[in-house]
Amino acid sequence: MRRAVMLAVVLGAALTAPAAEPDITGFSEQVVYLGPAEPVSMVAGKSAKVELRFRISPTFHINSNTPKGELLIPTRILLSPPTDIMIGRITYPEGMDATFPFAPTEVLNVYFGRFNITALVTSTRKATPGTFRVHGSLKYQACDTRACYPPRQVPVDFDVTVRKPLKKR
Questions:
Q1: pTM
Q2: What is residue 9's three-state secondary structure?
Q3: Mind listing the pLDDT tens digit for each residue in 133-156?
Q4: Which of 51, 73, 130, 144 lies in the 20 to 30 Å Cα band around 151?
Q5: Do the Cβ atoms of 156 and 34 come closer than 8 Å?
Q6: CB of 64 within 8 A of CB of 74?
Q7: What CATH number belongs to 30-163?
Q8: Is the dihedral of CA 121, 122, 127, 129 positive or negative?
Q9: Distance of CA 56 to the CA centre of its chain
Q10: For the chain, what are the domain ranges?
């Protein structure tokens, strides 16, 4: 009887659990969060900067965009703008050099806490006035003081408003 009750409890838990791919690393925590992005506004044919603000969960760090080891996965932002909007120079912050117990002789270049990434956004002169959504993702590798985990990504979205150029008199 005791076995039957235990089997029923296990089966019940399995049937009510959400269906998801198992995480074989045991690591499923989101580590990086995107703060609200200020909308970008520009005249058709001109450029403006967007500043994307990220926050890393306490007790974690992520590799910078220029990690020191060739096996380390850099933080990269990938943006897919709509037609007539282009993404130019992307600027990453400098990382901090640090050592950790899981590799005490290796100096890693990482981000902690908060960091910002800026990108130059340009519209064509023939861009239709209106508001457009730029989609993308930030790809990163998170680590804590014990280990580094498989790469993850966080969605990145922001709006670009294109206005008509002022008419010359």
A1: 0.79
A2: helix
A3: 999 999 999 988 888 888 999 999
A4: 51
A5: yes
A6: yes
A7: 2.60.40.10
A8: positive
A9: 10
A10: 30-163
